[in-house]
Design brief:
With about 190 residues, this protein is of the alpha+beta class. Helices cover about 20% and strands about 40% of the residues. The radius of gyration is 19 Å and the shape is globular.
Length: about 190
């Protein structure tokens, strides 16, 4: 039963019976698994699952209230766009610790206080990959970023009105940025 005023989740459907599973590809970055499953109707299908470790994404709020975004080049589509600091969790790493690490590595900033935001499944149809989201309050620069060799990143602080304009125009196309920023804005509006 949900909280007052919050609609309940839909009733769960029965899980598919797994008849067999094969690891098609595996690397330190990702994996691809092929499962053979039986549907509730009795039919059988193959289901391909993309395997990724859990991730974190951070809304960095500077001490003056502006939001720090990173402009990052993405090889996958060849574009540079505005994002939030984000990344995968290391094995056994707590989500907030991973968020603090990503914030420090990608921006050189640290937070005075952390607040959790709702997490999400960014690849729901093909993966159990899950992203934890946080707001990092009172961020200040504590050193130089420690970026990976493949990371081409710049940082820029944006006023709330600029974040809203980027969202409203559809210019924030990265789900790891857009969804947490929308949650942050909604919470800020609620008080």
């Amino acid at each position: 039963e949900g909280a007052p005023g919050i609609p309940d989740d839909p009733p769960p459907f029965p899980a598919f019976e797994v008849l067999g599973s094969e690891q098609v590809y595996s690397s330190p970055w990702c994996g691809l698994r092929r499962d053979r499953v039986r549907l509730p109707s009795g039919g059988e299908i193959e289901h391909h699952l993309f395997e990724l470790p859990e991730a974190v994404t951070v809304v960095p709020l500077l001490e003056d209230g502006r939001v720090l975004l990173i402009g990052q080049y993405r090889y996958s589509h060849g574009r540079t766009h505005w994002e939030l600091p984000a990344g995968r969790l290391a094995a056994g790493e707590a989500p907030q610790d991973g968020a603090a690490r990503e914030l420090r590595e990608e921006t050189g900033h640290a937070a005075a206080r952390w607040e959790g935001l709702p997490g999400f499944f960014p690849l729901n149809g093909i993966s159990a990959h899950y992203a934890h989201a946080f707001v990092a309050h009172g961020c200040r620069e504590v050193g130089a970023p420690e970026r990976e060799p493949s990371e081409q990143i710049l940082t820029r602080a944006f006023a709330r009105s600029e974040i809203e304009a980027l969202l409203d125009s559809g210019r924030l196309q990265d789900a790891f940025a857009a969804l947490p920023l929308l949650h942050w804005l909604r919470r800020a509006d609620l008080g």
